[in-house]
Amino acid sequence: MALLLFIPITGVLLNGYDFAFNWQRPFGLAGLVFVVFFIFSVLKEKWPVGLHVTFNFTKIDTLFWVFVPIFVLALPFFLNKYWLNVAILALIYVLLGLGLNIVVGLAGLLDLGFVAFYAVGAYSYALGHLYLDLNFWAAIPFGALLAALFGMVLGFPVLRLHGDYLAIVTLGFGEIIRLVLNNWGQFTGGPNGLQTPFPTFFGLEFSRQAREGEILFHHYFNLAYSPIHRYLFIYLVLLLVVAGMVFFVGRLKKMPLGRSWEALRQDEIACRSLGINHVTVKLSAFAMGAMVGGMGGVFFAASQGFVNPASFTFFESALILAIVVLGGMGSIRGVISAALALTILPELLRDFADFRVLIFGLAMVGMMVWRPKGLLNSRRRFFSLEST
Amino acid sequence: MNVLSVTNLSMRFGGIMALNQVSFAVSQGSITALIGPNGAGKTTAFNCITGFYQATQGEIQLHLLDHTVDIRRILGQPFVWQDLVQPGRVVKKLFYRWFGGSHLVNRAGVARTFQHARLFREMTVLENLLVAQNRSVNCNPLAGLFATRSFRHAEAQAIQTAAQWLHFMGLKGEANLLAGALPYGHQRRLEIARALCTKPKLICLDEPAAGLNPIETKELCELIRRIRDMHHISVLLIEHDMSLVMEISDHVVVLDHGEVIASGTPEQIRRDPKVLEAYLGTAQVGDA
Fold first, then answer.
1. Nearest-CA residue of chain B relative to A276?
2. B108-157 pLDDT tens trace
3. Which of A298, A361, B41, B285 is most deeply packed, by most CB within 10 A?
4. How near does any CA of chain A get to the CA of B94, in Å?
5. Its pTM surpasses 0.90
6. In chain B, which residues have their Cβ closer than 8 Å to the Cβ of A273?
7. Computed from CA positions of residues B16, B21, B24, B25, in that sequence, does the dihedral angle turn out positive or negative?
């Protein structure tokens, strides 16, 4: 198997217009795979339990809830600008993962064009600033609502579609948005993109030079100017929003709406027989997911200071989907950890940048083999029935 | 008094007439059985009644205490030329075409189960029942978000109702198990419990005894009787198990090739020559 795979990939080298065959490499790699599999199966024989790790969750929970907030709040003050940017990006991906988790993980609607809502959010800030003079604070709800609206618009035509067909249509939708942004030059700035202003702290700007009669953030608080302040600020606001969304999605799962999403994923016909209107339930899933994604877009535009359509390619959609699948469908913690892993690890592994996609693929295959339900399974809620 | 009346119901799939001028009624508080050989159109009739198919012709009416629901209308009917002179009807039709569907049939008071249990397999037993009660709990997302008092109250109520039905069905010990992990007999009972959670006036059971052993079938008989007697819910069922049908039904309707060939009490049906013919075939003279 491995041999068959490796021969065309590594065994044939292009040499001008000729092929040069290289037989040692595929055999070597196949042999390596064979040895690893052999060792693995021997180990499996010895410990039939396999790689099951059990935690005492209750103890970890309390530790988790004390330690993590302190850690994430203190973290940005120890980071330089580069790593702060990485952290912001990671949080944005957490937001996007949470949004797609609603659509794919809970409602089971495979959406390959989620980047469209991300783009809508980002551009609603850029364009809103340009045409409507919106500031950052107004752009967050505006971007969220606009993305939700686009979610509904996408939702209507695909109500009757399932699985593969739905995936294709959403993929097309994602591309449509990107192409419109790319080609509608007069309105969106086309491939050149648009500048977005940095957010302000209650009207105080974070720039170095003050314009006429303006008070800046570092003047007001008597601080020395540092470009890091604005990222620090975005990070903290973003953290707040992410925390809010984690709470929101967590509550959703326990609410009638969230339950009907999950029910719809598992059996649509049964849902209809129980009086659940599958149309509104599906639309609400699309709208909610898009809303969260749109917020991510606003933050992306704000932290980059610039948006252009090249940031919203299909690869982004695939990455977000990978976050949801790796993390475990419907599991909030899983999505958070997967989002952090998939954005921070590539930065740590800069040296292996060429192999990033390969490692990605390997991780996916490995997941499907060993943990098909994701890194962290979502646990079901336990109800205690008192004597009734 | 009838809770459901079906008049001249026809259903056509392309060139096949699956149901042809079928008429029958389910009287209030009765157990009515729909029987017939395979392919007779029983399940098609069921799907028409519960709103999964839009019948080609005929009327299906659900008679509730104070009003009557036309099931074909709430599914959304096609427009016809006569609508042009009655704009009011157009608006109504438009409304039902957009927002109508089988979920409204359930809300009107008809619950159903399926031939093969269609549970939410990855949810727990109790969650299955909570989904069924979604309409009665507080659906306001803001209320749910902040867990307001009314939200918590409604949730507690729903859990209590679910617990009652689980107790009724003898599934109380399994409330927190995954529905897909239950043994088959329990899954079928859970499906009935879930349908009952929607507070129906009429429950339609599609082959409830399929795949059950004789003891379980006996328990099921008892259960169906209790649903009718204790909760005053009328029952319409499709069944192949004749012992069950003859034991519990008050009224039996026999379908064959999409037509009603007989209806009456189990005693009458048992002796009806047409029914015997449909089930056993005709003995022709000269057959060896």
1. B103
2. 888 889 888 888 888 888 888 888 887 766 666 666 677 777 888 888 88
3. A298
4. 16
5. no
6. 50, 52, 102, 106, 111-112, 114, 118, 195
7. positive
